[in-house]
Amino acid sequence: RPGEVILLTTDLLVERIHFLRNATSGYKLGYKSLAVNLSDIAAMGGTAREAFISIAIPETCEVEYLEDLYEGVKSLAAEFDVNILGGDTTGSKTDLIINIAVVGTAPENEILYRDTARVGDIVYSSGFLGDSKAGLYLILNNIHADSEAFRQLLKAHLLPKPYLREGRFLGRRGGVHAAIDVSDGLTSDLGHIAEQSRVGMRLYAEKIPISQNLKQFCGQFNFDAPAYALSGGEDYTLACTASRDIAASLEKDYFSQFGFPLYPIGEVTDSGRLELICPDGRVKILTSSGWDHFRAFL
Questions:
Q1: I want to staple 171 with a disulfide (CB 3.0 to 4.6 A). Which of 110, 188, 226, 279 is the partner?
Q2: The CATH number of the domain covering residues in 4-110
Q3: Matching CATH number, 122-297, of 3.40.640.10, 1.10.486.10, 2.30.130.10, 3.90.650.10
Q4: For residues 190 and 239, is the Cβ–Cβ distance under 8 A?
């Protein structure tokens, strides 16, 4: 279409690196495999159009599991009118490997980038942070989800919400300058915006959106909830920066449209570093502490 550009993203999920097959159903794995790609399109303010699925299958993977996996992909695709156009299939010696590529579109003047944050912008999060990390902790430590809070944390990890409609809203809205999806952890992903935009950011610990479920989890296992939320990966919420001039109307209209808040968590500065303002006024310098795709092999 005139004035529109093509967006393209791809994500690779490898068994034992990104998921444990015995800890999730085929449906949930298929759903998440597509969701993480849709989240990239959302972070650009785009609309997802088509998906291509390639999969490497080990002999230990049952046909029923694969059928369930494709049902998960198709279910989420239908929710956002994404067409599944094909892909490729091959064998694998040991692990299940899934790669999905998604094609999207966006008006050229409404694309959200990472290098366009401006000093003075308000920093926002579109949802709670840290829930997925808590869900993964339950899985890795074989902790039974015996409460509604724990079940919701597991859901946050296994069935993440792609914020596609919210991303399109932000892209259309003048004054929203930069965005990213929180896949590797808030400090890590905001660090990408800060580095590429050549700015700093000041976050406020008391403003980090933390669910009651995570508070219950952190209380039970003696974790610091704000620190947990800052370093958690795979939340797939959107983090964005927007002009202070539109902040009040943006927050009001966002809540009116979606029924939940766009959480202001800080501001963009000229310091060149990420800072956390603690409840007692202390300033803590933040470093990237989320998921590193290569650190596990070093």
A1: 110
A2: 3.30.1330.10
A3: 3.90.650.10
A4: yes
